Design the sequence.
């Protein structure tokens, strides 16, 4: 069964804790992305990676960190430095192509700070 | 800075009542414009990509069109199962291939 998996579906964090969100894909896509979605707002880019062992900051990277050690995996760590982490987090991948890069999304992780 | 504005924020239709959703954009060289459907608590589902002004794409009751400044998602004779949030996004013709999203239009179709 091919696709993008994110885990966990729901995550609760206490103040001062770091938490890691998982994103795995078996689509053999090169590029992977992390977005954050707040109620009534569009998706905002946190980090992206176009190849293994390389990643770039997006528009709202402060308080987050990532790694890309394997093509299939792009975990996101939400650190205690992130002031308002409660949100819906979405991972996406890109197949790549001649004209443009359609992004396909995982099911998301909802993070709540207690 | 790339920007995407969607209108209306919310739309309520009766089943069978056709309408259009608007996506206005500014981008430094358009590489592609994307439409997604998102159900509550789920990830966006890809619908269409449009590349150049004048292009149109259709899928069941949905038809997307593109001009140099905006895109429309036309919904013909909608059904209750078309109820969702519809997201528009643009990709610029730069090295960074991430998308810039609008805030979406929440569509509710009543039987």
Sequence:
């Amino acid at each position: 069964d091919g696709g993008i998996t994110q885990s966990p579906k729901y995550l609760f964090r206490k103040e001062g804790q770091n938490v890691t969100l998982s994103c795995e894909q078996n689509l053999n896509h090169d590029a992977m992305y992390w977005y954050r979605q707040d109620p009534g707002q569009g998706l905002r880019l946190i980090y992206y990676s176009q190849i293994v062992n390389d990643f770039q900051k997006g528009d709202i990277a402060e308080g987050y960190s990532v790694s890309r050690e394997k093509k299939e995996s792009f975990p996101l760590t939400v650190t205690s430095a992130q002031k308002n982490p409660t949100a819906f987090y979405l991972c996406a991948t890109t197949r790549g192509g001649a004209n443009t890069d359609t992004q396909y999304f995982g099911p998301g992780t909802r993070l709540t700070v207690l | 800075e790339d920007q995407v504005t969607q209108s209306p924020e919310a739309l309520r239709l009766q089943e069978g009542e056709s309408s259009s959703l608007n996506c206005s954009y500014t981008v430094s060289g358009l590489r592609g414009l994307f439409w997604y459907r998102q159900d509550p608590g789920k990830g966006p589902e890809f619908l269409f990509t449009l590349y150049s002004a004048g292009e149109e794409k259709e899928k069941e009751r949905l038809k997307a069109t593109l001009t140099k400044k905006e895109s429309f998602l036309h919904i013909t004779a909608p059904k209750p199962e078309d109820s969702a949030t519809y997201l528009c996004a643009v990709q610029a013709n730069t090295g960074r291939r991430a998308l810039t999203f609008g805030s979406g239009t929440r569509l509710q179709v009543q039987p």
The interface with chain B takes residues 4, 6, 31, 33, 35, 40-45, 48, 50, 56, 58, 88, 90, 94, 99-108, 110 of chain A (CB under 8 Å). Chain A has a mean pLDDT of 91. The longest strand of chain A covers residues 43-51. The CA atoms of residues 32 and 93 of chain A lie 4 Å apart.
